[in-house]
Amino acid sequence: MTAVMSGKIVENFALAIQAPAMKLVKLYLAQSVFTFAYIYMLSSVGERVAAQLKKELFASILRQDISFFDKHRTGEIVNRLTTDIQDFKSSFKLCISQGLRSFTQIVGCAASIMFISPQMTVGMLLVMPSIVVVGTIFGSVLRKFSREAQIQIAQSTCVCEEAISNMRTVRAFAMESQEQELFARETDLACKLNERLGLGIGLFQGGTNFFLNGLVLGTLWVGGKLIASNQIEAGDLMAFLVASQTIQRSVAQLSLLFGHLVRGLGAGARVFEYIELEPNVPLTGGKKIPYHSLFGDVSFENVTFSYPTREGQPVLKDFSLKVPAGKVIAIVGSSGGGKSTIASLLERFYEVDEGRITLDDFDIRKLDPSWLRGRAIGFINQEPVLFATSIMENIRYGRPNATDLEVIAAARLANADGFINSFPLGYNTVVGERGATISGGQKQRIAIARALLKNPSILILDEATSALDTESERIVQEALDQVVHGRTTIVIAHRLSTIRNADIIAVVANGHVVELGDDISLRRKRGLYWTLVQQQERQELEDATSNRPPQSG
Ligand SMILES: Nc1ncnc2c1ncn2[C@@H]1O[C@H](COP(=O)(O)OP(=O)(O)OP(=O)(O)O)[C@@H](O)[C@H]1O
């Protein structure tokens, strides 16, 4: 009998809880689905925002003037692309997820305490502005701390980035321990600044907690008085306390979030600082001279220029020089006289302060800079930089849509086809970072092929052979002699023996041309050119007798 009764009770109970249990299951299911959707959406939005920022930042960095790269170190720039964007993304996600929850809890509970006791709520609201004011002041101090810490982190990244990318030099000078010490110093400083930031955030959160607990005590005190005067009931005070405790927890959460927000805002500000930076020389826009009507007459007219990092110290002063189309002009002069600067200005890496530079009578400021650099001018310098990819792709960098046959033709013209084919993988040989796995002369010939692929009307050779030994110099020089035909060529040379056949030689000193003519006429003049030739011949003779390799300069 009892067993039957108890069976019935269980049955009734099961029936009774069936409907609510189903509701609960549905609720749990819905909660799981919402949790999944919210976490997935948040992470997806966060990742997309970060990826978009990264792309925009990189695009903006690529757009910047060369002077930007003179002023900022590589590590500092890379840090903004990596650490800062990561910090920004993490705090963005955290602030949205926790911030939204805390915010809605605060709003909901604020409405209910308002309903329970408007008097006590108004009292609470009256003390709130003080925390807002204190919080704002504290916040700006913390943001400053965060900025300083992030700058210091970037500084330590710079040290390690520089050491790693110049590992051969570090090893050759046995500077490992000094680099280690320098990195440790910078890292310790970053650590101290971060600790200071942590201390500030800790104080802020501790202070917030203290204030909120004070608020609970205050509520109990005021609530007790209201109960005594029969204005509210004990149950209302309890409900008020529970709701205000929820507000307190949410505000505490928000204050915890505040630290992340400070970091995120600091990082975001650093990212946007670069994104919003507008270069003086845009990458594109302006006239493009059609290839068939481009002659290649270059003229510098009364150019005055000082580097943006050294304003007030002009490198070129009222500098004028005409380079007729198709001619080879050599620019010589003492070291630091401004020869490479002339090439940089023609490439429009920097803007002239006064005067103008023209190409076929067009001011280069009116020409499309990408067309000027990418099509009209081929630039080969002393230390060609190759990328860690195949030789084929390195040469194709000169013109991305060139066919394999065109690449090979350019390599032949540059005297490079022979050695490339001697590698087991031929054009598919990967050259290592910065072309570390091939010789200087080979690197230079690949760089020449790369420049030739554009078929430029103007060729600038900035000390193109000065880093090479005599044999490699001869081979590269032969390649260069072949390729200068029919192009306006500006040769910047230390070794005067390599430019004897130039149509015009311009001797540059103190920022302007002091002598102009060909080798024979300039020697006859017995001026600066003659002195430089004499100095170099004496040097070469001394090198030969002492069996030392010849030195440039
Ligand atoms: N990016 C730069 N920022 C600031 N000053 C620079 C920069 N590049 C060169 N200079 C300075 O400008 C002056 C001319 O330099 P430039 O490289 O044009 O001389 P150069 O005649 O080519 O020298 P070298 O024969 O030694 O290569 C030098 O005093 C140099 O220190």
UniProtKB/TrEMBL annotation:
GO cellular component: a single term: mitochondrial inner membrane
Domain named ABC transmembrane type-1: residues: 27-263
Statement: the UniProt record of this protein carries the keyword Transport: yes
Main subcellular location: mitochondrion
GO terms (BP aspect): oligopeptide export from mitochondrion; potassium ion transport
Span of domain ABC transporter: 298-535
Cellular compartments annotated: Mitochondrion inner membrane
Nuclease in keyword set: no
Domain of life: Eukaryota
Membrane topology annotation: Multi-pass membrane protein
Assigned keywords, A-Z: ATP-binding, Ion transport, Membrane, Mitochondrion, Mitochondrion inner membrane, Nucleotide-binding, Potassium, Potassium transport, Transit peptide, Transmembrane, Transmembrane helix, Transport
Gene3D superfamilies found in the cross-reference section: ABC transporter type 1, transmembrane domain, P-loop containing nucleotide triphosphate hydrolases
MF (Gene Ontology): ABC-type oligopeptide transporter activity; ATP binding; ATP hydrolysis activity
InterPro entries tied to this protein: AAA+_ATPase, ABC1_TM_dom, ABC1_TM_sf, ABC_transporter-like_ATP-bd, ABC_transporter-like_CS, P-loop_NTPase, Type_1_exporter
Transmembrane segments: 27-45, 122-142
Protein family (similarity comment): Belongs to the ABC transporter superfamily. ABCB family. Multidrug resistance exporter (TC 3.A.1.201) subfamily.
Annotated protein name in UniProt: Mitochondrial potassium channel ATP-binding subunit
